[in-house]
Amino acid sequence: LALCGHPVQVMCYSEYLATRDEKDFKEFYDYFGIRWNITYQTFEQASGEYFNTVAGNAKKYVHHCIGLPKAAKSYVNVRTNPILLIDEVDVFFDEKLYGKNRGIGSFPSVPGLNKIQIKMWELVQQKSLNIRQSIDSFINNNSDATIAEFRMLMNKSGQYSLLISTKDQSLIKHYSNFDIFSSHLDDMVSTAETVYKMKYDDSYLNQFQLNQSGNITVKTDFGSYAENTYHGYYNTFIYFRLKKINFEEGKSNYGYLTFHLGSISYAKLPENFPLILGVSGTLTTLSNYEKKVVKDHYNITDLSVMPSFFGGSNLKFNETQDFSCLNSVNEWMNAIFGRINMMVYARRSVLVVFDTDLKINAFKQQFAAQLDRLNVLTVDTDPADKERFINDAGVSRTITLATREMGRGVDYKSSVAVESNGGVHVIQTFFSVDVKEETQIKGRTARKDNRG
């Protein structure tokens, strides 16, 4: 398509896969002089870019109303009638994408708010009463220059109109800065109190973590941890809770207001393209509903199923004998460990796929001392380590603990020694609701003409 002069936009659910493929094919694209005709994006990146084309002035308007400097201009790479190619297209129909919206927001830094939020957290930790009143007093009686600037912004005269969406309708409402700031301060105090009361094993709390740079990140639906994902003011106060001391302002940490500007439906993204193409290794397992969406929503009527160049699969799997359901977490972990030991003794390598990184950590904590060549592979593994762990996954007696996101699209290779002993052994530790995921995980072994 690119050789014929068409711009091509390749979309994928995974930033790792998109980046990997772009890098792998760069030399080929450069050789034919078509590099600039081809763009790789995730669905999230594409939705953000599309929002800027249709509502690029929204951030500028919000900043202007509040009295803050103009928001940085967003540059959109305009392509004329690009052709859409969706990689791993069946994932697009997953509940994490099709039928879901991506919220778009503006998060302007406000002078003095960083110190106000730190004060809130101190008061919450002290279990103070009437925290909201204490914050008002802190703002009104503080001589700090930045808090004085915050106070001046909060009391700025004038009103402006904002479109507020409810479940049933959208309404135009008139606000002053005092109204907006007061409402957000209320929300901050409430969030801070909620975060302080969270137990350490709270599932919501465990969606957040500090990255290597010390910034707060949030787990996305596809397993990666992102700095640019915001959950109201939870980012701020969970950051305080996790960091404890030496807070660093910036990024998504603290010192900003949150404004919801709108939502983009992932299902609407392909509609902007004159031609839609998609590829997947599990096309034949699309459900009847998914087939109906492909045909009726996107008007795609042509499907082609290509046989493998290497012929039939050498995968060994018996649905009855190779399936286990255990009564307790302890039995489940011991069964996994026992199977790993059996394969290591047979000089094979083992890929163990877990539902979440939290379950990997629990398993590793209990059995790491008894396993020699053990690697952990998640979406957020350092890129250099990620490639090394992927290459090592097929080395004899190597155990790789991977999250479910690494069970699709990743090319695990096996050594000659492992192949001679039966190939890479895959253990899926959870039950897939969608058969396509199970098919993909099985496909991490017995690849090409190998065994497993």
From TrEMBL:
<dbReference type="InterPro" id="IPR000185">
    <property type="entry name" value="SecA"/>
</dbReference>
<dbReference type="GO" id="GO:0005524">
    <property type="term" value="F:ATP binding"/>
</dbReference>
<dbReference type="GO" id="GO:0006886">
    <property type="term" value="P:intracellular protein transport"/>
</dbReference>
<protein>
    <submittedName>
        <fullName>(northern house mosquito) hypothetical protein</fullName>
    </submittedName>
</protein>
<keyword id="KW-0813">Transport</keyword>
<dbReference type="InterPro" id="IPR027417">
    <property type="entry name" value="P-loop_NTPase"/>
</dbReference>
<dbReference type="GO" id="GO:0006605">
    <property type="term" value="P:protein targeting"/>
</dbReference>
<dbReference type="InterPro" id="IPR014018">
    <property type="entry name" value="SecA_motor_DEAD"/>
</dbReference>
<keyword id="KW-0811">Translocation</keyword>
<keyword id="KW-0653">Protein transport</keyword>
<feature type="domain" description="SecA family profile">
    <location>
        <begin position="1"/>
        <end position="452"/>
    </location>
</feature>
